[in-house]
Amino acid sequence: MAVHVSVHGGNGEKAIRDLKKKMQRELIPRQMKLGRFYESPSEERVRRRKESDRRIRKNRHRKRLEGQ
Q: How far apart are CA 2 and CA 26, in angstroms?
């Protein structure tokens, strides 16, 4: 999974911004953060469950706001 960014006209600042956006879309910073330390299978289950619950609550809240 490689992320490629080309520099046009020597505009390195824009290339860096584009690279950061692409990395965010690919969830690379998050994968790097999660891969720093060993996570036991039970810790991973707990983390994934919390993420799922958070996502579900967030979606319910959004739907409730749309209905108003």
A: 10
Handedness of CA 17, 22, 23, 27 (dihedral sign): positive
**What are the start-end ranges of the H helices in 1-67?**
12-25, 28-34, 41-67
Question: Would you say residue 1 has pLDDT above 70?
Answer: no
For 29-43, the pLDDT digits (tens) are 888 888 889 999 999
Distance CA 21, CA 18 (A): 5
- Could you tell me the pTM of the whole model? 0.56
Calculated CA dihedral for residues 27, 32, 34, 37, nearest 10 degrees:
170
Torsion 54-55-60-62 (CA) sign: positive
